[in-house]
Amino acid sequence: MIDATASAPGAAAKSRGQSLRFYGIWVIAGIALIVLPLIFSSGGSLTSFCLVGISIIFALSYNILLGQTGLLSFGHAVHYGFGGFLAIHVMNAVTAHEWPVPLPFIPLFGGIGGLALAVVIGWVMTKRAGTVFAMISLGIGELVASSSLILRSVFGGESGITTDRTGLPHMFGWSFGPQIQIYYLIAFWLMISAVAMYALTRTPLGRICNAVRDNPERVEFIGYDPHVVRYFAYGFAGFFAGIAGGLSAINFEIANSAYLGAAQSGIVLFATFIGGTAYFFGPILGAILVTYLQLGLADVTTVWQLYFGIIFIGIVVFAPGGIAGIVMMHRPLIRAGTLGMVLPSYLIALLPTTALACGVILAIETVARYTQSEGQGTVINLLGIPFDAVSPLTWLAAAVLTIGGFLVARITWRRIADAWNRAATAARDQEHHA
Amino acid sequence: MTELIVISTINGVLFGMLLFLLSSGLTVIFSMMGILNFAHASFYMLGAFFGFQLTQWFGFWPALVLAPLLVGAVGMAVERYGLRNTHKHGHVAELLLTFGLAFAIEEIVSMIWGKSPMDYRVPATLDFPAFTVFSTNYPAYKIFMLVVSVAIFVALLITLKRTRIGLIVQAALTHPNMVANLGHNVGRVFMLVFGVGAALAGVAGVIAGPALVTQSDMANLLGPILFVVIVFGGLGSLSGAFIASLFIGLVQTFAVALNGSLAGAFGPLDPSFGPSVITDIWNVTISQIAPILPYVLLVLILIVRPMGLMGARET
Predict the structure, then answer these.
(1) DSSP category for residue B285
(2) Is the N or the C terminus of chain B less surrounded, counting Cβ atoms within 10 Å?
(3) pLDDT tens figures, B57-89
(4) Three-point CA angle A123, A126, A127, nearest 5°
C-alpha cells in the first residue's frame, strides 16, 4: 500500500508526458498544415496538396469500415459521389437563389449527401459481414454507378454537372477562386474530420465496432446487435466520404459519374490497405503515397497502373499490415534499443533487392515499349541509361538483373530474418528485466 | 414476336450456359477453399486472349485445346505461390490478393495486346448458318458453343460423381480437414481444383471470344455479373449456380431484345414536368437498363432470401 501511494506521483507524471506527446502530435500536424504552402508555394505543389488532403479524408472514412469494423467494401465511392453531387447542386442553387451560405459550409452538405445514401442502403447491406458484404457492396456500387448514367437530370449523364465556386457569398473577404484559399479550406476540413474520426475510435461505439470486427457472436452475448453497430459505422463512413466528395466537387468545380465508379472505389481501397488498416495514421500514409504515385508515375511510364497492381499484390502477400504495420513493427525494437541489430542486414539486402526491382521494371518497360512503340522510338531511359527495347542485350540485362537479383536477395532476406529473431528476443528479454 | 421469343430463348440459354461454365469453377473453388476468386473473370479474359493468339499461330482447334491448359497452369501457379502464402492472413487478405491479381492481369493484357478489340474470327469450318428460324439464320458457331458448354457440364458432373478424384473433391468440399487426416494431399487437391476452375474459365473465354468482343475490359464487364450469379444461386451450391446462370442469362437477353419503356406503354409525360428524375425513369427503355438488371436482382434476393436460391454456406 505504501508502494502504491509512493508510485502515484510517478505514474501521474508519466501520463502527463503521454498526453503532452499525444496533443503535441495534433498541434504539430495543424501547424504543418498551415505552414506547408508557405514552404512549397508552386502551383503544382498546391494542387497536389489539395488532392492529398481530399484523399486522406476519403481513406480515413474507408478505414472506419475496413480497419475499425472489419467490413471490406468495394463500393465506397458511391458515398463520395453522392456527396460531390449534392454539393454541386447546393452550390448551383445558392448561386441561383442568392442564399447566404458561404463556401466553407458546402462540404457539410456533401457529408449529408453521403450520409443520406448510407442511411438508405446501409440497413440491407450490413445484414451480413465478410465476403457476402464485399459482394453486396460491389453489386450496389455498380448499380448506383450505372443508374447515374440513366438519371441524367440529377447526375448530368456522361459530362457531369459543373459549377462556379466563386459565385457563393464571400467569407473573410475570400472569394475561394485562388488555389491557396481552396487549400486552406481543405486543410481546415481535413483537421476537423481527422479529429472527429479519431475521436470516434475512442468512443464506446468505436470500441464496440472493433469488437464486432473481431468476434460478432460474443458481441451479441454482451447485449449489442452487430447489425445495428455495423449500420452506425456505415453511416459515419458515408458521412465523412461525402465530405471528401464535397471538397472534391469544390476543388474541380465538376461532379461526374466517375466519382461513383468502381475505379474510385478501387483507389481508396488501395490507399487504405497499402497504408495499413490497423493504425489510425495508416490510411493517411497510404493516401499520401497513392496520390503521389498517381500524379508522378503517370508522367514517367505508360503502364503505371500495372505497378500499382504489383505494389498492392506485394503488400498483400508480404506485408498485410501495410506501411504502418511495418513501421510499428519496429517500435518494440526502438524502445529496447536493439534496432541497431537489424539495420546492417537491411543495408546489405538493399543492393540485391534494388537490382531485382530494376530488372523487373526494365522487363516491364521493355515489353510495354515493344508492344506499343508508336512514335516513341525503341529507346527507353532507365535511371538515365538508354536501353534499346528491341536489342537482345536489353532482354539479357533484364533477365540477369531479375534472376540474379532474386537469387542473391533471397540469401540477404534470410539474414534479415535471423537478425530480426535476435533483436526481437533481446528486446523481449529487456522488457522482462525492466 | 414469336421469332423474338424463340431467338431470345436460344440466345439466353447460350449466355446462361456460358455464365455457368464460369460460375461452376468459381463455386467449386469457393466451396472448397472459402476463397471468392475475384480473378476468375480475368482467367476468362486470359483464355480469350490466349485463344486469339494461338489461333493466329496454330489455328482454332489447337488453340481450343492449348489455351485452357495454359490458363489452368496460370491458375495453379496463382494458387501455389499466391493464395497458399496469404491463407494464414485470413479471408480478407485472400480476397484482396485475387482483387489485385484481377487488376494486374487486366493491365498486363492491355499492355501486351492493347486496348482495342481483337480480330478474333469464327473458324471457317463453323462459319455457316445452322438453321433458319422464321427469317433469321442462326449461326452454327453458337450451336457449337452450346454443345461444348453442355459437354463440359456433363463431363464435370461425371467426374465429380463417378470418379475417385471426384469423390475426394466432393469430400474436401465439406470436410477438408478430415480428408487431410485420411492421408490425401489436400494441398495438391486444392491446386488441381483451382487449376481446373481456371481452365473452365479459359475454355469459356476461347469459345466466347469470337462471339462476344475480345477486349481488355471484358473481365470488368462480366466479373460483377458472375458474382450476382453466385449470390443469387446461393454460395457453395452448383445446382443453384446452374439455375441462376440460366435465369440471369435469359433475363438479360430478353431485356436487351425488348425496347419497351413506360413512355412507350402509357404515352409521353406532360411536358410541364421538365427534365427531372421522373422523366428520366419514364423514358428509359428496358434495353437501356438491361446491364443493371442483374444488380437489381442481387438487391432483391438479398432482401427476400439472403442465402440465395439454394444456398448452403454463408462464408
Answers:
(1) B
(2) N
(3) 998 899 999 999 999 999 999 998 888 888 888
(4) 90
